[in-house]
Specification:
single chain; 314 residues; elongated; seven-stranded parallel β-sheet
Length: 314
């Protein structure tokens, strides 16, 4: 009999049960148990765990663990809490996640391109006023991050007629997209973007990447969409840029503290649209199928999918 699979998370019991049901349906041959359900003997037997922001103490209590599969695409918290001594970590790479994120990038780019924040303000003032239309071909969308999510977003934006420029840590080639890298490339991206879309993973190198000096390099009246992580942008610097008129609007889906505290100035700021981390929700069914496929390959061949580079953080 195969060793049991540990499901280790900080979810509430109801949510964890729903996830386990999806995973069990995708791999009925496997014996999947929550950490709390494992006996001492079973904990020693566990070779593999499926995790969602697990308690590091629970992971440490599985001495035979050889690898971990995260249910999330973002693994910065996992990397930070487990450290360099963690077993190999596989993060979720789901084409459906990329599709949903690209959909969100296009939707909120349209929101800004069609001046929806201004029309919302005019409604509150009972002001009937037509604003000049901006054609997508007159605008450049800058993608900060050109991984799977950025590449999918670039394709959607190009199809919609926008000019697309992207920046990444390493050189990338995407047809129809001007791709940049390095400090000079980042400066160039900021200078030409009418809307900057943040899609980079959170690492030591990207924490605070968009700060006061980089915001100052942007076009006057440019806008920002942050679908990455809250800490990629320095919050106080962003508010200052909005207050000064340097930036026209910010669509924020991610924050350093979530849920966003009621006292946060973002809630009531007239130039901020707050979203409750909904740009790319994880599909349980799709995720379960991908995890099941990776587990099946591992059982049959001993081969792991690509694992997280702990030094890079993704």
């Amino acid at each position: 009999m195969s060793s049991p699979i540990a499901f280790v998370s900080r979810m509430n019991a109801e949510t964890e049960t729903v996830w386990k049901e999806a995973l069990r349906a995708a791999m009925p041959q496997e014996h999947i148990l929550s950490f709390s359900e494992l006996s001492e003997e079973q904990r020693r037997m566990v070779e593999f765990a499926i995790v969602a922001n697990p308690d590091p103490a629970d992971i440490a209590a599985l001495p035979g663990l050889t690898w971990i599969h995260s249910l999330w695409a973002g693994v910065e918290r996992l990397v930070l809490e487990l450290g360099e001594k963690a077993p190999p970590i596989v993060r979720l790479k789901d084409p459906e996640l990329s599709r949903v994120m690209a959909e969100a990038v296009l939707a909120w780019t349209y929101y800004l391109q069609r001046d929806m924040p201004a029309y919302r303000d005019n409604q509150q003032k009972a002001l009937w006023q037509e604003l000049d239309y901006r054609h997508p071909g007159e605008m450049t969308i800058g993608l900060l991050g050109l991984g799977a999510l950025g590449a999918a977003a670039a394709e959607r934006l190009l199809h919609a007629g926008f000019n697309v420029t992207g920046w990444s840590r390493s050189s990338k080639a995407i047809e129809g997209v001007e791709t940049l890298t390095g400090d000079d490339g980042l400066q160039g991206l900021l200078e030409k973007s009418d809307i900057l879309v943040c899609l980079v993973p959170l690492t030591d190198a990207t924490r605070g990447l968009v700060n006061a000096s980089r915001l100052a390099a942007m076009k006057n009246g440019a806008a920002i969409i942050n679908f990455a992580r809250g800490a990629v942008i320095v919050a106080d610097d962003l508010i200052a840029a909005l207050d000064s008129g340097k930036l026209s609007h910010a669509v924020l889906d991610v924050f350093e503290q979530e849920p966003l505290p009621a006292a946060s100035p973002f809630w009531q700021h007239p130039k901020v649209t707050v979203l409750p981390h909904i740009s790319a929700p994880t599909s349980r069914e799709s995720s379960a199928r991908i995890v099941a496929s990776n587990v099946r390959t591992w059982r049959e061949t001993g081969t792991l999918p690509e694992t997280v580079d702990m030094a890079r953080g993704y």
